[in-house]
Task: inverse folding
């Protein structure tokens, strides 16, 4: 009974986090018919600043970390991102009414990482007093980048395969260059900003700029982004119903299933290398999240034939609230019981 009460209290606190509050606020004003809009250039600037902040933080933590301690969790982070993409592709592409490229884009968005959900998880662990490694934020790009690149590669291969099969009759089928796809994906604006920040944090000493500009702006810019995502979530929710109800089912189940996979691998790292329980929780939260910063613009640019109503609607409208409100308290309580 005490465990259930503890989980219920954590569950309620999940709904009270600023991240989810601003997201729900955006959905509320959109539902009320508000004509509030944020200029696209402002949105792009906010995304750039947030990605640079995350990249800088990750690079600095990797530079200062014990690489031996970081190695196994980093390998698991890459593995988790890849597993999530393949699982989502396998599950969604076999359901009726779902196009392969839409299934892959959705899996890629759920394989990538939500900075807002991750930030909410770190703040939650600070509040409950559960310690975690200082370098754990460095795991973000290890999961995010492989998942997005893999999704774009698989999505473009699927598109090229379909187009190629149509051209066989006319003997016009052309080969697909995976090398070109990876290069083009890494040159996208979102991933470029993230990688740039990671390299600057790793190879230079940007602490004064980070502390004076990027870090103070993070929470405020993140709140604006959540309002934007909330507005879009409500708009996409109505579109999601017209696309396929299977996306809603997947978005409701996937965050907790993905987090469970990460929790299991995190437990292996815990017993093998001493990875902290808080680190295991944050690895699970990374896996349970679905990207709200780097993912949508990257997949829009990388997979232009994919339907944003499917992958953004399922992620933002359903996946993000579940990962924040349920996933964070669930994995925190699970770590308390297991470790």
Result:
């Amino acid at each position: 009974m005490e465990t259930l009460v503890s989980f219920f209290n954590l569950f309620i606190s999940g709904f009270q986090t600023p991240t989810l509050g601003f997201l729900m606020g955006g959905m509320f004003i959109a539902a009320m018919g508000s004509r509030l809009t944020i200029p696209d250039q402002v949105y792009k600037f906010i995304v750039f600043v947030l990605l640079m902040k995350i990249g800088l933080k990750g690079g600095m933590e990797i530079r200062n970390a014990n690489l031996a301690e970081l190695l196994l969790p980093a390998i698991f982070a890459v593995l988790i991102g890849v597993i999530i993409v393949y699982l989502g592709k396998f599950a969604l592409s076999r359901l009726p009414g779902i196009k392969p490229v839409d299934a892959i884009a959705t899996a890629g968005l759920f394989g990538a990482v939500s900075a807002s959900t991750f930030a909410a998880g770190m703040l939650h662990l600070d509040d409950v007093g559960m310690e975690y490694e200082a370098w754990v934020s460095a795991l973000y790009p290890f999961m995010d980048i492989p998942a997005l690149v893999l999704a774009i590669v698989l999505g473009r291969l699927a598109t090229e395969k379909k187009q190629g099969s149509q051209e066989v009759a006319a003997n016009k089928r052309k080969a697909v260059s995976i090398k070109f796809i990876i290069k083009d994906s890494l040159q996208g604006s979102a991933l470029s900003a993230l990688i740039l920040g990671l390299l600057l944090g790793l190879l230079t000493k940007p602490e004064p700029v980070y502390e004076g500009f990027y870090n103070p702006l993070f929470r405020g810019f993140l709140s604006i982004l959540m309002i934007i995502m909330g507005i879009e979530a409500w708009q996409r929710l109505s579109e999601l119903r017209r696309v396929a109800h299977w996306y809603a089912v997947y978005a409701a189940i996937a965050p907790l299933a993905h987090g469970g996979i990460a929790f299991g691998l995190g437990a292996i790292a815990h017993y093998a290398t001493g990875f902290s329980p808080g680190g295991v929780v944050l690895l699970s939260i990374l896996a349970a999240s679905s990207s709200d910063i780097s993912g949508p613009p990257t997949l829009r640019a990388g997979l232009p034939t994919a339907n944003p109503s499917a992958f953004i609607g399922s992620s933002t409208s359903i996946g993000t609230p579940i990962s924040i409100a349920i996933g964070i308290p669930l994995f925190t309580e699970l770590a308390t019981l297991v470790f």
